[in-house]
Specification:
alpha/beta, TIM Barrel, eight-stranded parallel barrel, eight-stranded mixed sheet, about 575 residues, 3 domains
Length: about 575
């Protein structure tokens, strides 16, 4: 009998599951269960997730533990993850952090990772302190409410506030000393929003915003702008070039014979370009508008929309290695059906320059932010499917590369060390060349024309992935070079996490490269629908680590409790300085 019990315990440990608590001891309404699709998924064990980062598929819930082949889950930003920790020999696991994506996997910790419907379930039932049971036999995870969760959260929040020092430490002391009993984590958190990140008024306090037809009238836009002002937002990054469409009638599209020449039903509303309407109303409220452009991404196979650019110029599309010589076009399987253009095609770069040139000299935007300024994503280098998933194998890119290096890049592998590195550098240089050309147009043409038209000074920025290795090696986005050469007026690293540590990491890295280039981090905690505390910590980190403002991603997620917290912060914070 003892041997049987021992083997049972060993099976629990060797499958990497948590030491379990007994959910039957809690009321049924306090617990919820969900099926597990895979544990430490691979292409073999989870075929449905084989084409996706981290091998987590659509609407799946998967588990990662210390036996995972990688040190991180490897997942993308389109889901949510929670970190579960147990003390040695404990019979109870607890969620200790809502992390977002690509979470580190360490001994003594388990990551529950979910996408789509599974992520909505995880967010609905999981929070810091929630009790966790992972049942390997039944292939299900059970989350139960923890009656001690608020006490644990308050203790954690006190520790965080004390570590921040200054106003945070003082507020925590005052709350416990003078707050009305019983003291709660919610009460303390609300108080801390009052002293969070007192940025200067002239720094960017922004939000990325995706316009909709339902909210395109003067009245609805004014309503949206008022909400933004009440939350302390002074800059809107308005989606202006998206899915291959402009939010205004483009003469450049007409010149190239691309139709339609504006986003269907949305690019022009009531005989007025949507961009012009936003500029008119936002500037009246003292809010700046930066045109947010999704540059090399030009459509999605899952949308019920045409892809006008590639419909007219199919030869402009990018090609993945595994489909390099196939006549049938293939969108990205990793980035959910996205279509991309080829940065190595001079016609593509010229077309995009013409589009931005038209935008910068026709509309009084306060800035232009380039996003998707890269190649499509591939798998990580260590992945068995890395080579097949790489991009850039278009006829014009192969011909150009072969003319210089006497070899077709389609025949190269990472084992061809020097030539493979040249191929990687070649792709990155195509993107950089376009960024450099854009800067040239700004200095030699836009500035003088805009001054004549009495337009505001234009700021050129880029939304980038802050990890230089992954950014260059996977997406061929050489933003460190752009910073060193001062091709941009400010950088916007996208913090694709619900945690605060990556904020400071990105800021330090970029400041070390070129301290004269402002860095305005993009905070993604709201996107992950994480607790408002995660947003507070990211915001505070952007201030504590010398960020030059912040941008929330994105406006759809600034609702409910987070909206109330941001309004409370705006009402109580004091701007110091200019």
């Amino acid at each position: 009998m003892k041997k049987q019990i021992f083997l049972s315990v060993m099976v629990s440990v060797t499958v990497g599951m948590l030491a379990l608590f007994n959910p039957t001891l809690l009321h049924a309404s306090e617990c919820a269960s969900y099926p597990i699709d895979a544990v430490n998924p691979t292409t073999t064990s989870n075929p449905a997730g084989a084409a996706f980062p981290g091998f987590r598929g659509i609407n799946q819930l998967v588990i990662y533990d210390a036996r995972n082949a990688r040190k991180h889950t490897g997942t993308n930003e389109y889901g949510v993850e929670v970190l579960v920790r147990t003390a040695p020999f404990s019979k109870q696991g607890e969620i200790v952090k809502i992390t977002g994506a690509n979470t580190p996997v360490k001994a003594g910790e388990t990551v529950i990772s979910a996408h789509g419907t599974a992520s909505r379930w995880l967010l609905a039932h999981g929070k810091v302190g929630t009790l966790v049971q992972v049942d390997a036999t039944q292939k299900k995870v059970t989350l139960c409410e923890n009656p001690k969760a608020d006490a644990l959260a308050l203790k954690s929040l006190m520790q965080y506030a004390k570590a921040q020092g200054g106003d945070f430490k003082a507020m925590a002391h005052d709350f416990l000393t003078y707050g009305e009993p019983p003291s709660t984590s919610q009460g303390l958190e609300r108080a801390l929003w009052q002293v969070t990140a007192p940025f200067y008024e002239n720094q960017i306090q922004g939000v990325w915003h995706r316009p909709t037809l339902e909210q395109s009238s003067d009245a609805e836009i004014k309503k949206t702008l008022l909400r933004f002002k009440e939350m302390g937002i002074n800059t809107v990054f308005l989606e202006t070039f998206v899915h291959g469409f402009t939010m205004y009638p483009s003469k450049v599209y007409q010149k190239y014979g691309i139709s339609p020449n504006a986003y269907p039903k949305l690019g022009v509303v009531g005989n007025e370009a949507l961009l012009a309407r936003w500029l008119r109303l936002a500037h009246a409220e003292g809010i700046n508008v930066h045109a947010w452009l999704q540059v090399f991404y030009v459509g999605n196979s899952h949308l019920n929309l045409p892809t006008p650019i590639l419909a007219k110029f199919p030869q402009w599309r990018n090609r993945q290695r595994q489909y390099a010589d196939e006549p049938t076009p293939h969108p990205s399987p990793i980035e959910q059906g996205h279509w991309f253009m080829d940065p190595a095609n001079p016609q593509v770069r010229q077309f995009l320059t013409d589009v931005v040139d038209e935008l910068a000299t026709t509309y009084p935007v306060d800035g232009i932010q380039i996003d998707y300024i890269r190649y499509p994503a591939s798998f990580e280098h260590a992945d068995a499917n890395f080579l097949a998933s790489t991009w850039g194998y278009t006829p014009i890119a192969r011909t150009t590369f072969k003319a210089k290096y006497k070899v077709d890049p389609l025949t190269l592998t990472p084992a061809d060390t020097l030539l493979w590195q040249e191929w990687e550098r070649f792709k990155a240089s195509q993107v950089t060349q376009w960024v450099r050309d854009l800067r040239t147009h700004q200095t030699l043409k836009w500035n003088s024309l805009r001054e004549t038209k009495k337009f505001p000074e234009l700021k050129l920025s880029a939304a980038v992935f802050p990890d230089p290795k992954g950014s260059h090696g996977i997406k061929h986005q050489d933003w460190p070079l752009w910073m060193r050469e001062s091709y941009l007026d400010f950088m916007a690293p996208m913090i694709l996490s619900a945690n605060e540590a990556p904020v400071c990491k990105a800021l330090k890295l970029m400041h070390d490269i070129n301290p004269s280039i402002p860095v305005v981090p993009g905070l993604f905690a709201p996107f992950y629908k994480s607790p408002t505390l995660s947003s507070l910590k990211q915001l505070q980190a952007s201030f504590a680590c010398n960020g030059d403002g912040f941008i929330w991603f994105q406006s759809d997620y600034l609702q409910g409790e987070l909206e109330e917290r941001l309004k409370y912060r705006k009402e109580n914070m004091q701007f110091d300085g200019c």
